[in-house]
Every structure is written in C-alpha cells, then in structure tokens.
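Morning!

This is the sequence you dropped in the shared folder:
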Amino acid sequence: MFFFLISLLSFLFLSKSLAPPRLPSWANELLLLWLLFLRELPSSLVELLVDFKTQIVMSSNKKVVPKVENVEAAGEMSVLDLPDLALECILGKLSPAGLCNMAGVCSSLRDTCRSNHLWERHMREKWGTLIGRAAQREWQWFVTSRKESDSSTQEGGPRGFLGSLSCVWPLSWLRSKINSGRSKQRCPLPVDSIMSWYMSLESGKFWFPAQIYNREHGHVGFMLSCYDAEVSYDCCTDSFHARYPPHGRRTIVIEEGVQWERLRAPPVDTPAHDLHTSDCLDDLRPGDHIEIQWRRNKEFPYGWWYGVVGHLESCDGNEHLCHCHISDTVILEFNQYTPGSRWRRTHVNRKDHREEGNESDGFYGGIRKLKSKEEIAAWKRLWPTEVLE
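The structure's back. Tokens below.
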C-alpha cells in the first residue's frame, strides 16, 4: 500500500508538469488524501504505541497491586466519595463560573455540574425578570433549529470522489477529518439544557425579545414609554445591545449600553403591530395606573405609554360624590406633559373601545391596568426631571 501511494504521488506530480496547469477534480482529491495521510500517520503511530504501552502497564498492575479492602488503605477520601445529597449541597453553593470549572474535573462531576436543577437558581436570579414567554418561545425555536442543523450535519457526508473513497478507506480518522462541521469536543454541552441557555445569554450569542423603557438613549419623544426590541447581553459592560424593528421609512435602529433597569419582559403576548384586547375597562377608576398602546401612524408599531385614570370635567374629585367609574367615558391623563398640552389628556369609550385617533395626534390602542407595585415603581423611577411640552 505504501509503494502504491508513492507511485500515485509521483504520477500526480509528473502529470502536473506535463499536462495543462489545471488538474481534474479527482486528481486534486487524491492529492489531498495523500497529504492528510502523511500528516496524520506519525500521530496515529504514536497513539498506537501509547495505547499498547498503557495496556501492558495496566495488565502488569493487575498482577502486582493487591486488592484494596477498604477506603482507608486506598488513601485519602475524595469529594466523589461524599453522599449525593452532600455533594449537591456543596455544588449548589457554587457560582456559575465555579460550576463550569468543577465540570472540567472529571466525567462524573461534569454530568452533575451540568444538571438542570443546579442551574435553575442561577437562571432565575440573573435572568428571571427578563425572560418571559416570548423569550422562552424564541429559545425553543433556537434549540430546535440547532438540533436540526446538527442532525443534517451528521447525516450529510463528504461529496465527490473523495467522499466515496472515505466510505471504504480502512483508517477511521479519515472520515472525521473530511467531514466539515464535526465537533471536536468529546462531550458537547446539550443544547436544550438550562446551562446551555444560561451560557448563550451570558455570551451574547442569543438575542431574545424584551421591552425597553425610554428607547434610543431616553429620546425626549419616547419618555415614559416602553417599546419592543431584540436584545443581547454584553458581559464586558454589564449592559445590553438593542435592535428596534424597522417601521415606516426607518431602518433597524441599534442602541448600545442599555442598562438593566430599562428592560423588562413583555407583560402580554400581543405583537407590537396588533391591538391589545382590553379586559380591564369595566374596573378602571380615577387614580388607577395604566399602560396604553400608542403609535404615530399605522406603519409604526405600538409602544406602551404610562398614565393614570383621571376624573371627568364634570366631577370635582370628591371621592364620596364621584361617579366617574360608572361613566362610559374614561379619562386618561399623562402628567409628564404640561397642562394644556394636546398629549396631556385623552379619553376612551369604556363599552366600545377600539383603536382611536388620527394622523396628527397618533392612535391609541389597548389598555392594561397596572396592579403590581413593582411595575408602578419602575415607571416612577423613569419620571423626567423636567415637564414635557
């Protein structure tokens, strides 16, 4: 076989000097095969010698080393000798970086440190406020696409003459060297594990849907609003990159350096261009905190704008005499604007509310009643330092 390959290589070099410069594809593939063989032959021989030596040593040790009757005779106790519950309690105290380091100690600890129940706490503590149903669906789609991609890569073999030759070539290393995209990692991290999700978020590789308060670095036109975007984490600055979807004549807008306090998980599943179904209109009373959809025109996506329910003009605000809660008209106030501003007040119909507005004042959509103190506090932290015109 060796002399055959030498003759083949000589023939290829000779034909290259006599024939036109371009060789047929099968000749190039044979040349590549020969180069791969020469590169891998020394390391393959070394591996064979090492394995042979290891087997000899192990067989001799079996004859010489006496059987260990108890743990004390074998030496000091290792962490792997701890009961499972004690070991998991220790691992549960580690940080994500500590778990990753511990997973590289041995195969037993690797499987334990990658288990979902150890990573659920880290996932909840760091990402729980940002990962909503929309981000979970996006991750499931990401996992499915990765699995399908890996499956097609494993099933698809090399093409052409070289691929056909690899099917019958006696050396097992040939197929692993030719197949592009094969992972060199012996035990890759399962793509559907919580650890994989955490690491994808931490590295910024996974973009997920979220909502951002006061978009575009707090542009005055977006004060006390919250818009949909795709974000990815930047661990170097402990902030986020944001991509706002295009609308109207505007292309995708990129914002960097978005801080944690400006992000939230989308509270509803309503897409940004769809009207949210308001299920709280009958319960609205003066003083309630609300969010309402608003957009500049029909081409724009909705954003959520903060406001409060006000009193009718005919009501003096006396809580004992107020009947605003039984009126079909609901007054909404946006007190970040000066009195008299066209953005200060608007009204909606309690019984028959649909998208209302025009091209000059924009269009008002669905309403959410805020019941959580945390949501209300988040809006108040973003209150502008100056009253808006």
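Headline: Residues 209-264 form one domain.

More detail when I'm at my desk.
O.
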